[in-house]
Amino acid sequence: MAKKKVKYKATNKTLRQQIYEFRWIYFLGIPGLIILLLMNYMPMRNLIMAFQDYNPHLGILKSPWVGLEHFQTLFQDDKFYNMLKNTLIISGLSLLTFPAPVILALIMNEVRNAKFKKFIQTSVYLPHFLSWAIVASLTFFLLSTEQGFVNKVAEMMGNEPTAYLFSSKWIYVIIVVQSLWKSVGWGSIVYLAAIAGIDQSLYEAAKMDGANRFQCMWKITLPSIMPTVMVMLILRMGTIISVDFEQVFLMNNAMVKQQLEVFEVYIYNNSIASGSTQYSYTTAIGIFKSVINTGLVLLTNWITNRKGYEGVM
Amino acid sequence: MTSQSAAVLKKKSDRKKMGMKARENVYQGILWIFLIVLALTMILPFLYVVILSFTDSTAYQAGKLILWPEKWSTEAYQLILSGDGFMNALKSTLFITVIGTPLSVIINAGLAYMLSKPIPGKGFFNKYVMFTMLFSAGMVPNFMNIKQLGLIDNYFAMILPSLCGAWTIMVMRSFFQSLPVDLEEAAKIDGCGPLKIFARIVIPLSKPMLATMTLFAFVSYWNMYFNCVMYITSTAKQTLQVYVQKVVLSSTVSDVVDLSMDLATTVPQEVMRMAAVVVVVLPILIIYPFLQKYFQSGMMVGAVKG
């Protein structure tokens, strides 16, 4: 604070004069600040619902206070632990696919033909731009019991159709494959950029020493992009409590409800969808998730800064 | 003697070179096969849907595998496009996309430009933006907020929440910071006001970045799904994504398609579903080639790191 005052004095202008000087700059920023206020900060006042027994007829101001009761219920609720378990299973399984974009980037980097490389990039990035509603529809066309492509092929070969979309065994596999399909190409961009930044003289020197391409990849490319890989892994760990909600919501059905009930799905089904029966309790669940999330983001930021990776980002 | 051995050596090294070249070709061949298979897994599901969507109703037999229809027809498309369900959804998606996309880019760019200048209170405003990335009130408080603002079943309930994003603002800010200051200084000396500098110098210099952001905003509005599910109550205002989801999951497709004429019975439901998916994805496929240019640029890298 003191430092800033010195700075203002150095320009021989009072704070008011400075603000006046930048008035048009502020003018440009104000709409954005207002939108953030309306859409990101104003909702926060509704967080007090979590400490009340919200009744839509009484409204937020008059609903009775219950303190931390909802949070106590939360930690005794079997459903809560099921949600936590499902979230961690889906996140954990997705984490297994973490090396896929790295491997894809390494492979794409080995391709010599620039046109072919571009064609491959164009096709693997495409799924990123499709909505989950479309991806879910495509999954349905491929896997549905009667009309699905896979089951039609199975039937042709004399096998019984399998209800993949309703199977508790298959549903996690479907979710993970969908995520992989949608994000593997897009995720490889960051590693391709890291590879493009590697000093080419390293490769020339290695070639002089008789290294083959595989050795170059293993001993130069991979170690060079390792800091980027680490940062991405740490950031990924920071989102372990979140799943792609739209995806899980769209793949939900009565048969796999037990497996796919993650936090937001439960929150939605028991508040907005069912007409305000459990607004307070679901807000409490939301707070639990948001707090864990914030903690993880702060933790991952702290780790990446401490490890000296900030240059990578 | 020496020339002979030299010739032998040369032959040897030639053979070695040829061997290496052959090995390199095999290596490239394996890479190509792997990548082609990967690219096909990305394209084929969609291609399958496109081909089947043109199947004639007489050539379609439920439950039978069709890879190439015996008879082609566009009747499913005619039905989908003539239905009120599609027209309403298209209107609604077009409205939020046409209003939301430019508004989002302008507002984000303005705020990002403000944060890139040495204004008093810069630290506070930076934290103000960053905090929205760190902590979110959650679904129910957001829903209550929209309700309190009286925006339930209003198109703006879908436009406003995704208008400003901390990530977009931060990417834009670092781009503005990387612009050379000389031009702005020169314009200032020539008597240009800050608004004129922003409109005439900063925006033209940032075209590639703004184009990328416009496309991201376009995709996010075009793909609007859950905010519509939450905030929009009337069927006539639902977006294309909600519509396509209903078409695909409904057991009575013709109800969702909402035909003005009574033709629905002839076209198989599965073919109609596929046609609906194709129609909804088409605009994304059309703008996709324009995205290409930016794929390898730094902006995309910032985008992925998010």
Overall mean pLDDT of chain B: 86
Q: Over the alpha carbons, how many angstroms does the gyration radius of chain A reach?
A: 26 Å
The assigned structural class of chain B equals mainly alpha
Alpha-carbon distance between the termini of chain A?
29 Å
- Distance N terminus to C terminus of chain B? 68 Å
Q: Which sheet architecture does the biggest sheet of chain A show?
A: none
The helix/strand order of chain B is HHHHHHHHHHHHHHH
Q: What's the total helix number of chain B?
A: 15
Number of domains of chain A: 2
Task: Classify the beta-strand content of chain A into a percent band.
Answer: under 5%
CATH architectural category of chain B = Orthogonal Bundle
What is the CA-atom radius of gyration of chain B, in angstroms? 28 Å
Q: Rough shape of chain B? A: flat
Number of domains of chain B: 1
CATH topology of the largest domain in chain A: MetI-like fold
Corresponding CATH architecture of the largest domain in chain A: Orthogonal Bundle
Oligomerization state = heterodimer
What's the total count of β strands of chain A? 0
Low-confidence stretches of chain A at least 5 residues in length (pLDDT < 50)? 1-9
Overview features:
heterodimer, A: 313 residues, mainly alpha, MetI-like fold, 2 domains, globular, disordered N terminus, B: 306 residues, 15 helices, 73% helix, 0% strand, flat
What does this 3D model show about the protein?
The complex is a heterodimer of chains A (313) and B (306). Chain A is mainly alpha-helical and 313 residues long. Chain A is built from 17 helices and no strands. Chain B is an all-alpha fold and 306 residues long. The longest helix of chain B has 52 residues. The model of chain B has no long low-confidence stretch (mean pLDDT 86). Classes of the chains: A mainly alpha (313), B mainly alpha (306). Chains A and B meet through α2, α3, α7, α8 and α9 of A and α1, α3, α4, α5 and α9 of B.
